[in-house]
Amino acid sequence: MLSMADFNLYNPFEGLLFAGPFCFLCGQPVSADEKESVFPAWLMARYNFAHQEVLLLDKTITTYQNLNIPCCTVCQHQHLAPLEEKVQAAAAQGLIGLRALDEKLLFQWLGKMFYGMLVRELIAEQDPLIPPTYSLSDDIRMLDKFQSFFKVLQSIRVPMQFADFVPFSLFMVPVKLAAGELPFEYRDDLHTMVFSLKLEDTWLICCLLDNGIIKEALHRLWQPLLGKQLEARQAAEFLAQVYYAAYLFNVIPEYFVRPPKPHDTHLIMDTLIDDITATVFNPWQLTGYAHMFEEMLKRWGITEAEILRDPNQPLSFLFDAAGNFRENLNDETEAI
Q1: I need a surface site. Which of 22, 92, 266, 288 has the fewest CB within 10 A?
Q2: 3-class state of residue 283 by DSSP
Q3: In the Cβ-directed half-sphere of 88, how many Cα atoms lie within 13 Å?
Q4: Exposure pattern of 285-304 as b/e (b: 16+ CB <10 Å)?
Q5: How many helices and strands (H and E) does the chain possess?
Q6: What's residue 4's pLDDT?
């Protein structure tokens, strides 16, 4: 039976308790040896990127296997290990297995990696190699976003039910893995709070703090793609659309815990979004989207100017001029 202590939420944002010897998930004191890898060992082994270098915001260069965060043995064994086992088993089956998982588990799994990267960046800011131009820990709005996100991420260890909402938008995008393409790719954005992974035949793209609003707003984009398998440039366009929508997203969901009763088995979380004093999305701008799309198309050398060659019909690999899905992109020379 759960005690009231099992429902306690940890708030490291009071005092910015990131560099100290405290478990990132529950706040219990830990030894220097009690650590959790940001990226799971099974994922690094499967896609062979443990020794690849990663650049932090303070220009520190490290490797993925050295991205660790403080974590107590209880959270490791009772909460994180079971989560990893479920996702690993699902990922072994590809898209079919991932689709069979509860989306809340994928949110927790992706969210843990996102939050782990955030913690490492905040720790690095305590003693930076090169002070970043914009410090995350000095940005009150960003800290408010991270704090809201971490409250619901603690559903990893605290039994939690979301009342009539989900805190995230999750997209599972089937992709064709052509010869020479990487089976694993990773992209995140701390400011827009989007985290995405390509696992062979599937892109997982998660907007981690939007209460499902971005997925609803992009309904006309993803609905025609259901059942379609995207080629690499089509996937890049889809990523650009999601990341740009997240960039325009202009509100911070707040979460409130209903007071638990003695025999409750889980916390119930309610939410509130202030859409009175702030617009939910900032205005969409073609040049802003084209800049994002260019970023996603870097490997192909396609520029913003090419994307906007015809401003009335910007470059699209997903849809033709009539709005129909491009089934055979390689045969459509007019797409480039």
Answers
A1: 92
A2: coil
A3: 15
A4: eeeebbbbbbebbeeeebeb
A5: 11, 11
A6: 53
* Amino acid (one-letter) located at 265: T
Q: Give me the phi and psi of 158, to 5 degrees please.
A: -105, 120
Contact 52, 131 (CB under 8 A): no
CB of 196 closer than 8 Å to CB of 239: yes
Q: Identify the segments of the chain with pLDDT beneath 70.
A: 1-6, 330-336
Structure tokens at 307: 């994307």
Give me the pLDDT at residue 1, please: 44
How much is the pLDDT for 171? 98
Give the other-Cβ count within 10 Å of 307's Cβ: 23
Domain residues of the chain, as ranges?
A: 4-335
Distance CA 79, CA 76 (A): 6
Neighbouring CB atoms inside 10 A of 308's CB total: 19
Instruction: Give the number of other CB atoms < 10 A from CB of residue 67.
Output: 21
The predicted pLDDT at position 218 comes to 97
Q: Is the pTM of this model over 0.85?
A: yes
